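To: structure subgroup
Subject: Chain for Friday's discussion

All,

I'm putting the inputs and outputs inline so they're searchable in the archive.
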Amino acid sequence: MRPIKSTARAPAIASGAACRFSNLRQLELYDLRSEAAAIACLVPLLLAADFWNGFPLIYYDTGAYLLEGLGGHFLVERSPVYSLFLRFAGAGISLWFVALVQSIMVGFAIVECARAIVPRLSLAGFLLIGAVLAVATGLPWYVGQIEPDCFTALVVLALYMLAFHAEAAGRTRAVVLVTIGGFATAAHPSHLVLAAFLMIGLLAVKVLRSIARREPGWPAPRLLQPALVCLLGIVLVVASNLYLAQAVFVSRAGASFVFARMLQDGLVMRLLDETCPGSGYRLCAYRNSLPPTADGWLWTPHSPFFQLGHFEGTSAESARIVRDSLLRYPLLQLRAAALGSAVQFVHFRTGQQIEPQEWVLAPVFAHYVPAQMASYLAARQQRGALDFHSLSRVHVAAGFACLAGLLLLLAWSGRTARAGTGAFPGFVLAALIANAVICGVLSGPHDRYQSRVIWLAPFAVALAVASRLRALQGKGESGT
C-alpha cells in the first residue's frame, strides 16, 4: 500500500508547489509585504558566495580596515568611514555581521530600484532577476567581501532613485536612500569623485531639459536629495578623519595614488631623467631603482616609497611631481588618461586577488578577532580552493552582452521618443564610464574596480525587459 499512497500524494505535492509559485507570481513589488519579502529573499542570494566559502570573503585591505576601525590607528590610505563601520557593525564579534548588514543595504537598494521602475513586477519575477544577478555577475562576491567595494554601485542606485523616483518612493524610503547613499559615498575616496561626476551629469540634464522646454517624456531629475547624499558623504568623511586623526581634511593620499599611476605610465621616469638633479626631488637619488608598476611602488617593502616615509613622508613631493608632470607633458598625460580609462572600462574579471591572504593578514586577525581565526583559516579562500577561471568567463560575457544591451535600449528609447525608458540604462552607462575614468586616471586599471559595478548593466537590462513584458501583459489583459 505504501507505493500506492506515495503515488497518490505526488500530484498533491506538485499541485501545492505550483500553487505556491502561482502565489509568488500574483504578489507584486508595489505591495509592502512583497517588498519586505523580496529583500528577505534577496539577502541569502547576496551572501551565497560567503556561504559557499564558509566565511566572509577577505581582501588584502581588510586587515588595514580592521587595524583602523578596531584598533583606532589612523591610516592615510584607508577610508576611516568604512573602518568605523566595521567597528559599529560588530566586526569584533563576527565578520558575518558586517556581511549581513552590507547585504541588507544592497538588497534594499536593488528592491527599491526595481519597485520604482517596474512597480507591478511580481515577486517571482524579481527573485528570478536576483538569482540571475547572483549567478551571472560578481555581485555576491563583492557584497560578501569585507571591503567597501559593494558600496560603489549603491552610490549610483541611491543617486538615481533620489533624482528620478524620490516622490514615488515616499518620504521614509527617500530618507533611508539618502542615508545609505551618503554612507556609500563616504565609504571610499573614489566614491566621492563618482558622486560628484554623477551630480554634474544630473545638473547637465536639468539644464538641457530646461533649454528643451520640457520635451515630452524626458524625465526631470531632482537635485536637492542627490545633493544631500553628496553633502552627507563629505560630512561623514571629515567627521571620521577628525575623530581618528584630530584634523579636518578629506583625503591625504590622493596625490600618492596618482603619482603611482604616472610612474607606471612612464611619465615620472621621464620627468626625473629630464630634470634631475636640478629639480631637487628626493626621488632623484632613487631613479635607477624605481619599481615599474604602481602596485610595486605602493605595496612592496623594498620600494623607495617605504624608505621615503610611505604616504605621509612622500605626499608633498608626490603632489609636486604630479603638478610638474601635468604642466610639462599635458598631451602625454591626456593620452595616458584616455588609455587608462578605456582599458579600465573593458576590464572587469571577477575574483582579482581573492586568494589565500593569511600570510599578510593572520597577525591582524589574531590580534583583533582571535575568536574568528579558526573559521577564517578553514574557509575555502584560505585553503586556496577558489577558482574564478570559468566563473569569470561567464561574468565577463554577461557584462559585455549587457553593455551592448544598454546601447540598444538607449537607441530604442530615442527612436520611439520614450526618453523616460532610457533614464536608468543611460544613468548606469554614464556611471560605468565615470567609474572607469576615475579609477583608470587616479589609480590605474584593475579588474576589480569595474567588476564591482558592472552588475548594474545586467540589472538595468533585466528591468527593461521585465518592464516591457509587463506592459505587453497589461495590453493582453485589457484586450481580453
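Points worth raising on Friday:
Residues 1-8, 10-21 have pLDDT under 50 and may be disordered.
Residues 79 and 188 are 6 Å apart (CA to CA).

D.
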